Amino acid sequence: MTTMMERPRAVDGWTVADLEDFPDDGLRYELVDGTLLVSPSPRPIHQEALLELAVLLRAAATPSMKVYIAPLDWQPNDTTSLEPDVLVLRRDHVGERRITAPLTLAVEVLSPSTRRYDAVLKTSVYAEHGVESYWLVDPVEPSILAYELKDGAYVEVGRATGGQSLTLEKPFEVTVTPKSLVSG
Predict the structure, then answer these.
(1) Domain residue limits at 113
(2) Tally of domains within the chain
(3) Is the pTM of this model over 0.85?
(4) pLDDT tens, residue by residue, 25-56
(5) Any idea what the CATH number is for the domain that residue 124 is in?
(6) pLDDT (tens digit, 9 = 90+) per residue, 83-101?
(7) Residue 110 lies in a domain
(8) Where is the Putative restriction endonuclease domain (predicted)?
């Protein structure tokens, strides 16, 4: 195994327990089937969209649901740990230390360094582990693409760009207007 000083972009054999010893250095450390993935901290436009969306979701959430933002690890097994930008789950699925239950909604706000990873790899990992809904939000070209899990695969349930509004029913009814997530 590679030492921490080398900071690999991808190395196999890591576990969730290994992540506890990683430094708090502003980088995002995630695992997919034991492969360590490292990405830089997000840009201001990413954080702006993330915060606005989290506020919107929290206001719309039913009492049985909880809304969290990164950094918070979702760890469905001992070799996978992802940090969705926004996590929504049933209140009774919130653990004291870790989130291990399937998420009701995972949202990724796209960044240049993670766009392909979020749109391809994370999509398959979330589907494999039963995440009910998955949204991709682009803050640069304001847009949202929403999926729901049907028979183990994601099916598009809505999309909107710019000033268009999209009303989604799951995990609870909420209307998202992509342009309103970022200041122009």
Answers:
(1) 42-181
(2) 1
(3) yes
(4) 877 888 888 888 888 788 899 999 999 999 99
(5) 3.90.1570.10
(6) 999 999 999 999 787 899 9
(7) yes
(8) 17-173
